[in-house]
Amino acid sequence: MEETFISSKPCAKEEEIIDLNQITLRSFNLSDLDDVMVWQTDEKVAKFWGEPYTSKDQGINFIENIESEYLLQCKAICHNDHVIGCIKLFSSSLHDKSRYKCAEIGYVLASKYWGKGIATCAVKQMVMVTFAFSEFSYLERLEALVDVDNVGSQRVLEKVGFQKEGVLRKYVFFKGKSRDMIMFSLLSTDIQL
Ligand SMILES: CC(C)(COP(=O)(O)OP(=O)(O)OC[C@H]1O[C@@H](n2cnc3c(N)ncnc32)[C@H](O)[C@@H]1OP(=O)(O)O)[C@@H](O)C(=O)NCCC(=O)NCCS
């Protein structure tokens, strides 16, 4: 079933061009392929995201196989229903809900849209929907691992209310080098639902 989540709180600042009330989350369709390729082939995006795609087949594979074993949710970030990014919730402990009530959040936005508050708005929507309304409302903790040099992403999490827990030294091997990562978390009890 197609889902559209609309923020109940406006997050826009007056001087911004993009109306953040037009930022919604929905499922991906194959017709979104060209939009997906925009950020998946962008070297700027890839710096902290992963290897850029080199073929449309990779984009098709991404859209067609979004439901992988560890993915709880993967939504398109849309502006006026036009896909400009992606936000996902995943967990390696999906099969043991009685023991683990924690999931990790990840997000990406086409570089043309950076710096307008859009990722912050999308993360807020995902947090609210997850803790309050979804089948994943059993989750008590959302966490995010951010490269120490990814200042923009750290700021997004801080603005949403995530707490910085500490630095995990040489935690992720990425682009030929072990990277220090910052662990952020948000508990369901940290926010007003
Ligand atoms: C990280 C990312 C999602 C942020 O998206 P965004 O829509 O630009 O984020 P927002 O506009 O909501 O907030 C960004 C904040 O970081 C700040 N920021 C961005 N780059 C910064 C930098 N180099 N130094 C200091 N602050 C920076 C912005 O000023 C803004 O804060 P402000 O509102 O207090 O001014 C986007 O840059 C992206 O897609 N990057 C590539 C993928 C990625 O890194 N994903 C996260 C993996 S953990």
Question: How would you describe this structure to a colleague?
Answer:
The chain has 193 residues and is of the alpha+beta class. It has a domain at 5-139: Gcn5-related N-acetyltransferase (GNAT) (Aminopeptidase, 3-Layer(aba) Sandwich), CATH 3.40.630.30. The chain contains five helices and eight strands. It has helices at 33-40, 43-46, 56-64, 118-133, 151-160, and strands at residues 5-6, 23-26, 71-79, 82-90, 102-109, 141-147, 163-174, 177-187. A hairpin with a 2-residue loop joins strand 3 and strand 4 (82-90). Helix 1 (33-40) crosses helix 3 (56-64) and helix 4 (118-133) crosses helix 5. The longest helix has 16 residues, at 118-133. It is globular, with a radius of gyration of 16 Å. The two termini are 24 Å apart. The structure holds coenzyme A. InterPro entries: Acyl_CoA_acyltransferase, GNAT_dom. Residues 23-180 form the N-acetyltransferase domain. GO terms for molecular function: acyltransferase activity, transferring groups other than amino-acyl groups.
